[in-house]
Amino acid sequence: MNAPANRRGPGLAVIIGLLCFLGFLALLFYGVRQSGRGDREALPSPLIGKPAPEFSLPLLHEPGRLVTSKDLLGTPYVLNVWGSWCPECRVEHPVLTRFALGKRVRVLGYNLKDEPEDALRWLEQFGNPYMLVMADRDGRAAIDWGIYGAPETFLVDAKGIVRWKHVGALDDDVIDDELLPLLGQVEAGK
């Protein structure tokens, strides 16, 4: 005669495995929530306080015309990295547009790894807040800037020194609490 099978349910090993999996999901959720809380100093830019990288990029609207880093010297500017393929760029676009309409500082677009027709169509659809848009179609110049993706935003002073970098979509709080105070310092020559 055969011994009766153990029929007590799923067993301790399965329950422990399920609890470990749920614990892992909880940690993952916590990590994702923490990364979205705006701790932008976690990846500080080595460019802060240093000259902006030298570059020569074509304009999106005039591909035959190049803009260089030297062309931008003389007045501060905000450089906003975006792409038509970037969902967060669409989120920040109304905020950036309101900021640019104030005309306190030049707002320049840096179109990253985009097809020109897609980028132009995106600006046509959502509006163009930029004084000019440079196109880095292959992303080579982005390496020197330390650009991880889009959106990212830089503040560069009149001497071409990078003063600030923000990774992720701009919102009103970031502009009010971070960008505007630094812009005030830049304008005061500090």
List the SSEs and their pairings.
Blueprint: H1 12-35, E1 56-58, E2 66-68, E3 77-82, H2 87-101, E4 106-112, H3 116-126, E5 132-136, H4 140-145, E6 152-156, E7 162-167, H5 172-187
Parallel strand pairs: 3-4, 4-5
Antiparallel strand pairs: 1-2, 3-6, 6-7
Characterization of the model:
The protein is globular, with a radius of gyration of 23 Å. It has helices at 12-35, 87-101, 116-126, 140-145, 172-187; strands spanning 56-58, 66-68, 77-82, 106-112, 132-136, 152-156, 162-167. It contains 5 helices and 7 strands. Mean pLDDT is 87; it is low at 32-42. The chain has a 5-stranded mixed beta sheet. It has a single domain (47-187), classed as Glutaredoxin (3-Layer(aba) Sandwich). The protein is of the alpha/beta class and 190 residues long.
Shape: globular
SSE run: HEEEHEHEHEEH
Which strands sit side by side, in order, in the main sheet? 5-4-3-6-7
pLDDT < 50 stretches: 32-42
- β-strand amount: 15-25%
Record field, number of beta strands: 7
Number of helices: 5
> Radius of gyration in whole Å, from Cα?
23 Å
Termini, distance in Å?
91 Å
Helix content: 25-40%
CATH topology: Glutaredoxin
Which CATH class? Alpha Beta
The second-level CATH architecture is 3-Layer(aba) Sandwich
Which features characterize this protein?
single chain, 190 residues, alpha/beta, Glutaredoxin, 5-stranded mixed β-sheet, 18% strand, cytochrome c-type biogenesis
Concise synopsis of the structure shown:
The protein has 190 residues and is of the alpha/beta class.
